[in-house]
Amino acid sequence: MKRVIIFKFLFVFCLLLFTSGCSIDYNLTINEDSSINENIIASEQTDRMEARTKLKGEQAINYLYNMFVPNDEYSLDYKEENNTTEATVSYVYENIDEYISKFSSDVFDKINIAKDNDKITIYANQKQKLGGYGSSSLIYDEINVNIKIPFDVINSNADNVKGNVYTWNINKDSEVKTIEITYKDKSIKNKATVSINDKKYNFSYEYLILGVGVVLILSIVIFVMINNKKNNVV
Q1: What pTM, to 2 d.p., does this model score?
Q2: Which of 28, 159, 163, 170 is the most core-located residue (most Cβ within 10 A)?
Q3: DSSP string spanning 51-62?
Q4: Minimal CA–CA distance to 97: which of 153, 35, 32, 189?
Q5: Beta bridge partners of 170
Q6: Count of CB atoms within 10 A of residue 83's CB?
């Protein structure tokens, strides 16, 4: 009887060790107006996650996410069902510069960006392998980085491409990876930079042309009114 109990215990223990572990889907969507949506989904067996983090419930989830997104501005939603915990965080950025400035992760070095007119290159280097290798313990077993771009992509080193979604697959068995993608941001061509009191402001050409048109019409109206007044006086 004891042997049966011990066998069951070992079976459950091995099942927890070798079943699919913590999976992260990192989704980045670059919109046509250059705003950016960031969405990160994590899923893990609840008891395995709590055992590895040595924490319970929401604290365990926060520990999991603080390794990837240590940013108080993120809102965290999570649910636990059938011994599986799934959590989601999301954030919206006005542009890529704001995204780069706020990005923080134990998985990747700070993201770099290079701009050449309308050509933009995003580059990130993985710090270390997953699954506890390296100087610190990254408890993730798999990370899928998905970047969705509506613009023309000139070059990328993505593992998979489906439509306009570029995917990099990182797991415990893969070597450290770099993420690199270059694309043409069409929205940049439609913007003009105006300097006012040493401050730079970006305006859409459509709005700039509309503003100039309105000023021109008002100037003509004022000119006509002034001339009418002069004629009436005479």
Answers
A1: 0.68
A2: 170
A3: HHHT--HHHHHH
A4: 35
A5: 143
A6: 11
76 Cβ neighbours under 8 A, 6+ residues apart: 61, 62, 65, 87, 88, 89
- Can you give the pLDDT of all 234 residues of the chain as single tens digits? 433 333 333 233 333 333 456 788 999 999 998 899 999 888 888 887 788 778 787 777 777 666 666 556 666 777 888 888 888 888 899 998 898 888 877 788 878 889 888 899 999 998 878 875 444 456 778 899 999 999 999 999 999 999 999 999 998 888 889 999 999 987 655 555 555 555 555 555 555 566 667 777 877 878 777 777 666 655
CA pseudo-torsion sign 6, 81, 27, 56: negative
Q: What count of other Cβ atoms lies within 10 Å of the Cβ of residue 106?
A: 16
CB contact at 8 A, 109 and 125 = yes
